[in-house]
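Filed under: proteins

Residues; backbone shape codes:
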Amino acid sequence: MQQTMNLICERFLLGQMISEPVRLTGGLLHETWRLQTTTGSYVLKRLNPDIMRRPEARNNFKMSEEVAMQASFHLAALPARRVNNQAVQTIDGSDYLLFDWIDGKTLSADQLRSAHARQIGVQLGRLHGLTVATTGFLKPDTSSTSIDWDGHLKEGKRQQAKWLHLFMEEQEHLQRIERLAQEAQRQLPVDWIVSHRDLDPKNVLWTLKGPVLIDWESAGLIHRAVDVFETACYWSKKEDNTFDRNRFNVFLDGYATNQRLPGVDWTHVIDSSVQGKLDWLKFNLDRSLGKSGISEAERVLGTEQVVLTIKELRAHDRNLWMKWMSVR
């Protein structure tokens, strides 16, 4: 570890380590540490090797960090540091991103207030107003193949997965919202925009100067209205997986200070919005079941995320959302 840290300090011109790296918690895919060196404090992110083995991974990180860099010229966004104009650095057999340390904190659901939701609405409106080139970004696949529900159920039974009973209880509901999502994506008019795509409370640091938008690795093309709706849901969610209507509305009001709300059939937007969570569920089902020979730690994290994601999808209240959006 010490040798690797020395190489990292040398590559990024950080000077000398003045204390041991401190492992940070909360990452769902990657490992992160706080580094303190003679030049300052930093966050080091070791990118998940399973992710980096994907053929498209390096270009995805390159493109997403370019979005973060462009956004940082216009709003409080945190891009990774670069060496020779490259954000991802391969050092001692692993891939890393390095960020400046920000003195701020993320907020839990019980700490969120209407003022926070409004500020993020303003930030998203500003982001949507930027002219970010879409060249090189892959358009999201709107012809998503269905999850192999029965296959996962069968393997879950064989392994006696911890999420098995919850999965069985919710399978019919999950398959129904998947069908609605697939149909809605075919119905939505083309309105792609480059955005953060994961602007939930874990990816915003609150400082004395206001919010700083972090973790841009999901940045890419998304339907404008879907991005607005999903982010409004993130910032109106309560601890019990219900939603605060006032926070939902003030988020949209904040967005509307910079951008007009898209003129779309919001039913299609609401139905389409669960596709990202369904994709995340599939990824974690595979992780939990140990596909591709992943580590035990990854399997444990996958199992935790399967349970959390199914519960979030169970809380998706289509009728409630349609009622709220009908009066906007």
Q: What stands out?
A: The first strand starts at residue 22 and ends at 24.
